Amino acid sequence: MLLGATGLCPSFAQTTESAVPTPTPAVKVDKKIQPVTGKEGQMPTAEQVAETVILIYGGGGGRPVLDQIRRNGVERGKLTRTASDGRVEESTYEQRFVRGQSAGKDKIRMDQKLPTMEYALVFNEGSVWGIINGTAFTPKQDVTAEFRSHTQHGIDSLLRYKENGSTVSFIGKEKMKGLDLWVIDLTDKEKSRTRYYISANPDIRKTARVLWLEYEETPPDAAQPSKYRRTFHDYRYSQNTLVPYRSVLYKDDKQVLEARVQTVTYGIKMDDEFFKNPEAAAK
After folding, report:
1. Which residue in 3, 35, 135, 153 has its CB near the most CB atoms, within 10 A?
2. Strands 210-217 vs 241-251: parallel, antiparallel or unpaired
3. In this structure, are residues 262 and 76 in contact, taking their beta carbons and an 8 Å threshold?
């Protein structure tokens, strides 16, 4: 789980007011679904685990439900960042998205409101730029890297692994802190790897939830890679789909970011102007 010359990119407050909800499509959900565990004594395949996760996050309806409901949406919440020197910075955010056929074709706009400023980051079919006071700017490398990694190393990457051309491999079944876990690796087309730790609880109400994920990345200003871990908490259902309302990101075992979702609404009528670069639009 990040403002515009010529009037093409409204301010944070304006984007909030312009959202027009559309009715959620009626979806038939199979509530009798059971997790895919294979025969007793046998380990499931990576594909079985991934497809079970997709099934559960779709409220029992799986990929068709996710494709139908999560085609676009708006998420609002709060971010708490902890700097390396211990300083804490809080902000509110509003993230809009429109899904493409794959993650590389997605459109994402994240408006952030800090005590001293407001700005937006936009991802539009592979390109990233920022907007502040109506003017486009090139974000710092670390900001762009964080923005990209949030989607590259997230739950959504697992839910759309087939669409993105990613591969999954089964690492094993483990028990940590009393929890039964499936562990799988996802490798995307850029050869970037994310390891997922997924609940293997036999209780259908708790199974196949991503509890945390891990990955390594080399920050733009570093020579060596850092180890990242993102944990997911407070799962709730939103429009028949499973959503973690709190997540925490750790870098080398130190907390750097906490995100708390306040509201999330899918099926929002989205104007393409939200995702346009004001400089390109002015030409």
Report:
1. 153
2. unpaired
3. yes
Q: How many domains does the chain have?
A: 1
- The residue with tokens 């130190």 is 254
Per-residue pLDDT of 7-55, as tens digits, reads: 322 232 333 333 344 444 444 444 544 446 445 557 899 999 999 999 9
Each residue of 149-164: pLDDT tens digit? Answer: 888 999 999 999 999 9
Residue 178, SS3 per DSSP = coil
CATH number of domain containing 149: 2.50.20.10
Q: Is residue 37 part of a domain?
A: no
CB 237 within 8 A of CB 205: no
Residue type, 231: T
Does residue 167 sit within a domain?
A: yes
Burial of 41 (0-12, 13-18, 19+ CB in 10 A): exposed
Burial of 283 (0-12, 13-18, 19+ CB in 10 A): exposed
- Per-residue three-class SS string for 57-82: HCCCCHHHHHHHHCCEEEEEEEEEEE
| Contact present, 32 and 26 (Cβ < 8 Å) | no
pTM of this structure: 0.84
Measured at the alpha carbon of residue 264, what is the angle toward residues 262 and 265, in degrees to the nearest 5?
Answer: 145
For residue 245, the tally of other CB atoms under 10 A from its CB is 18
